[in-house]
Amino acid sequence: MSTSPSQAPIFSADRLHLHVTGSVNAALVPHWLNWLRIFYPDLTVSMSVTHSALRFVTLDSLRLLSSGSVWIDAWDSPDIPSGVHNGLDEDTECFGIFPATLNTTMRLAAGLSDSPMLMALQLTRRPIAVATSFPGTNPLIDQRLEDLQRRNNIIFTPQVPAYSVSQDQWKGGTGFFMPFLLETLETKLSAPETTRQNHPA
User: Fold this and answer.
1) Tens digits of per-residue pLDDT, 76-121?
2) What's 128's domain CATH number?
3) 22-26, 96-100, 136-140, 181-185: which range is least confident on average?
């Protein structure tokens, strides 16, 4: 995949759900929402947001820039869609975990459903693209990621170079790049019966 930030890939879905988790990259989600509004004006983008993500981005900013519903991923949230127990399949065509923290990805890999959105992601048959934002990895994590990809509706986005805030240097890679997320989802949308493996580097 060779998409640059200014290029908009073909994306056939009309309804996208983004799950925003507690990486510092969550602060950049409003930028990508604005980008989506420019290049995909007819796309409805709904969002679920973890409490930890609210350290880096506000609900107000996401609601102003999103074309769909925005709700906190907690069982006591008043805005939880009724379809979470059915994978939100009636509400969206595909999902992006954007950014996907190590904690959220490992919980998904373990089969946990301790939040409304995690339950929906466990139950849905819709495509799920995971845009990793990890501080590092180890053999156990790699094994969990391989296990997760046994679900043929889950695929990881390719990596782009990453800047480590904690180490104050460019180090490693991240899947947090909206054009790649859309391209990754499109491979599933255009060929839903084909398993496409793409392990993060």
Assistant:
1) 999 999 889 888 988 899 999 999 999 999 999 999 999 999 999 9
2) 3.40.50.1950
3) 136-140
Secondary structure of residue 19 in the 3-state scheme: strand
Residue written as token pair 């602060």:
27
> Which residues form the domain of 179?
15-190
How many angstroms separate the CA atoms of 131 and 158, rounded? Answer: 8
Look at residue 142 and tell me if it is in a domain.
yes
Please report whether residue 6 resides in a domain.
no
- Vertex 51: Cα angle to 34 and 165 (nearest 5): 65
- For the chain, the domain total comes to 1
Intra-chain end-to-end CA distance of the chain, in Å: 14
Let me know: does 116 contact 127? Beta carbons within 8 Å. Answer: no
Q: Which of 21-35, 101-115, 151-165 has the lowest mean pLDDT?
A: 151-165
DSSP symbol at 82: G
Cis omega before residue 127 (within 30°)?
no
pTM of the model: 0.88
> Does residue 9 lie within any of the structural domains?
no
Distance of CA 125 to CAs 43, 133, 134, 176, 187, Å? 20, 24, 25, 23, 15
Inside any domain, residue 172: yes
What percent of the chain has pLDDT above 90?
75
